[in-house]
Specification:
The protein is α+β, with helices and mostly antiparallel strands. The protein folds into two domains: 190 residues; 200 residues, Glucose Permease (Domain IIA) (Distorted Sandwich), CATH 2.70.70.10. Helices cover 58% and strands 16% of the residues. Strand 5 and strand 6 form a beta hairpin. Helix 1 runs antiparallel to helix 2. The N and C termini lie far apart (88 Å).
Length: 431
């Protein structure tokens, strides 16, 4: 009767396992409720993000309309105020994306942990079953037959144990598969964590740009004493300095000698866009806008519409060859905050009028990496990104005496006039 009693103990074990399974299922149900709450929160934040992005688009449209108006103190103040509202809305969007990413990570982690617990419980139950079955097998079949009169009960017990054990094995395999599926989400979780780090960095950058915006408004009001006549005097002085600066640079670059070897240049379309959303506002070369805005009558790059605080990305793999803020040397006459990148493919580019620089000289950057944020620094009639393009060996950062700001030296990328290339040729097709 001994072994028959062992089977009865095993039934108790199985019954306990069923009870354990009930609690596991109950925990899963509770978790499901929690997961549903988290998803509802994520959905609500996504709705908030969509509404904020509509506001941001509205601010963009207003800024574009302002850029077409005659330059005045009132227009400049409105641009600063709209830019601040837009940046604040962008900060809210980033914060909500951070919260969503945290919720996503928590959900994935909880799912993996719950399934692992379920698998562990099933595995332990099977171990105990195997132990009891092993005890049965230690006795020979004749001994079992002699020890029991009811052979039918014995075979039923053995058959039931085998059946239940097989069901538990099947259950464990199913849970193991679920665990494996969830472990595949480790990459998703890792990507989410990387996204979280990037979002937190972006949030800190956006807050810096808001602080700059606030300081710029205070300085403008202080310089003009909130008087339109004073603003027009400042504007006239800045335009004169800008024209003088352009004449200096043009004269210097026209004396530089550079032999352009087309064989050293890459083919068409080798670069990626520097912005996620692309809208060209000024093409390269002689255009109506270049005649109006530049003393030379030609535009030495391409301008893209970009609100203050828009992430600017490297167009290919390369090395940062220079950074500077020309406003610190002679305000409002040149690129303002700029980055010069020399790419591995033989090209180089300057990003101008930035609000924030994220890289340093000598740093290696990858295609698509955020290197700065667009702005309105230097000589600019409104927020945008300027891109100049050259052969890699034709451009260098140089420091030159400034006639427009006597006693000041100006540091920026310099290249021979014939070394300027049309960025659009090397960028993806644009309509």
């Amino acid at each position: 009767m001994k072994h028959y009693l062992d089977y009865k103990k095993l039934y108790k074990l199985i019954f306990s396992f069923i009870i354990l399974g009930f609690f596991v299922c109950t925990n899963i149900q509770i978790y499901a409720q929690t997961a549903e709450d988290l998803q509802n929160q994520i959905n609500q934040r996504n709705n908030d993000i969509a509404n904020l992005e509509k506001e941001i688009k509205s601010f963009n449209n207003q800024l574009n309309d302002l850029s077409k108006q005659k330059d005045s103190l009132n227009v400049s103040l409105q641009q600063l105020d709209l830019s601040k509202k837009q940046l604040t809305a962008n900060i809210s969007v980033t914060q909500k994306k951070i919260e969503n990413t945290n919720s996503k990570i928590n959900t994935l982690s909880s799912q993996i942990g719950d399934k692992q617990d379920s698998i562990t419980n099933n595995t332990e139950a099977i171990k105990l079953e195997l132990k009891n079955i092993n005890e049965v097998e230690l006795n020979s079949i004749p001994e079992i037959l002699i020890s029991e009169n009811n052979f039918s009960d014995i075979w039923n017990d053995i058959d039931n144990i085998s059946t239940i054990q097989e069901k538990i094995r099947t259950r464990t395999k199913e849970l193991q598969k679920t665990k494996n599926d969830l472990e595949d989400t480790k990459k998703v979780t890792t990507d989410a964590r990387n996204e979280l780090v990037a979002l937190k960095t972006k949030l800190a950058d956006q807050k810096k740009i808001v602080d700059q915006n606030t300081a710029e408004k205070k300085k403008l009001l202080a310089d003009t004493k909130n008087n339109e006549a004073n603003y027009q005097i400042l504007l006239k002085d800045r335009l004169a300095k800008k024209d003088a600066f352009e004449a200096d640079i043009r004269n210097y670059e026209s004396q530089l000698k550079y032999i352009l070897d087309p064989k050293k240049l890459p083919g068409k379309g080798v670069l990626s866009w520097p912005l996620d959303n692309v809208y060209v506002t000024q093409m390269f070369g002689k255009t109506e806008g270049s005649t109006r805005l530049y003393a030379s009558g030609t535009h030495n790059g391409t301008d893209f519409r970009a609100a203050i605080g828009t992430p600017v990305k490297a167009m290919a793999d390369g090395v940062v060859a220079g950074t500077n803020d020309t406003d610190l040397q002679c305000k409002g006459v040149s690129f303002g905050k700029l980055i010069l990148i020399k790419y591995d493919n033989g090209l180089a580019s300057t990003y101008g009028h930035l609000s924030l620089i994220k890289v340093s000289i000598g740093e290696r950057v990858s295609r698509g990496e955020v290197v700065g944020y667009s702005g309105n620094s230097g000589y600019s009639t409104g927020p945008h990104l300027h891109v100049s393009m050259y052969p890699k060996d034709a451009v260098e950062m140089k420091t030159l005496p400034s006639k427009s700001c006597p006693g000041k030296n100006l540091t920026q990328p310099i290249a021979a006039i014939n070394a300027y290339l049309d960025p659009m040729y090397y960028l993806p097709s644009y309509k």
